[in-house]
Amino acid sequence: MTYRARDMMLKLYPDRRWPAFLRVLADTIAFFWAVVWAYLGWLIYQTVMQMEVIADAIKNTGMTFDQWIAAFRKSVPGGIPILTKFLEDTADTLKHYSGDPLVAAGQNIHDAIFHTAIILGLLVALPPILLVLLPYSGWRWRDIRETGAALAFVRIASMTGRADAARAALAYRAVSSLSFRQLMSASPDPVGDLVDHRYDRLATAMLKRAGLDPTRLAPPDLPELPPHRER
Question: What pairing do the DSSP bridges indicate for beta strands 8-11 and 2-5?
């Protein structure tokens, strides 16, 4: 799978099955790692939010007091100046020191529980997610760009008919960048291959390391056979 972003080619997965499988597996593990920790953070949030029943109970108690006081005010008889004013002042005092403070306290506690739930959920979920995804995403982005650049190199060389020159460049790059174990696995005589212009094995090793199928690079031109002469 390939994409083109401006002038840069991106290739998500290598051509070879085993490297592609390893990257798919790593992507899957990273995805489920993030999902699991996000779910744990959600569980923490839900657990803390269950404490809001306490705040709701306090708030409901205050509202109940307010309803009782309102009912009391309605039942105050009118027409008795001193008694009526005394009862209304008593109702206002009860509302000021019992109902309203309980409603405000319940709302404040509810808000505090909500903020605490969010903070604890983020503290549980974000650190492990970022600890894994940030370095892994950086590595995957560099890997995608490197594989895409290698594919662009091969395509340009094939389209312009410079496949042989591309093999030579890949062979010299293999000698300079592959480990000695990888180099000797690719060819029993890497230096001899360079001297004798036998670039195929080293170029193939370099393409495999880049995650590409070596057949993407056009095969070398075969020498023409002399015409068959009938005797």
Answer: antiparallel
Q: Is 43 left (phi over 0), alpha (psi -120 to 50) or beta?
A: alpha
Closest C-alpha to 214, from 202, 225, 224? 202
| Most confidently modeled range among 78-82, 84-88, 204-208 | 204-208
Angle 52-75/81-94 helices, nearest 10 degrees? 180
Among 11-15, 80-84, 158-162, 172-176, the range scoring the smallest mean pLDDT is 80-84
pLDDT tens per residue across span 47-60? 988 887 777 677 77
Of the candidates 108, 132, 112, which has an alpha carbon nearest to the alpha carbon of residue 120?
A: 112
Distances (CA, A) of 124 to 27, 37, 111, 119: 22, 7, 20, 9
Q: Please, are residues 127 and 33 in contact by the beta-carbon 8 Å criterion?
A: no
What integer pLDDT is reported at residue 210 of this predicted model?
Answer: 87
Question: Across the chain, where does the E strand assignment appear?
Answer: 2-5, 8-11
Judge if pTM exceeds 0.85.
no
pLDDT tens column, 86-121: 555 565 665 555 666 777 777 788 888 889 899 999
Query: Coil, strand or helix: which one is 2?
Result: strand
Rounded to a whole number, what is the distance in angstroms from the first to the last CA of the chain?
A: 55
Distance of CA 106 to the CA centre of its chain: 38
Please give the C-alpha separations between residue 65 and each of 54, 109, 169, in angstroms, as whole numbers. 17, 18, 87
User: How many angstroms separate the CA atoms of 198 and 156, rounded?
Assistant: 22
Question: Which of 167, 44, 63 is CA-nearest to residue 113?
Answer: 44
Count of Cβ atoms closer than 10 Å to residue 80 Cβ = 11
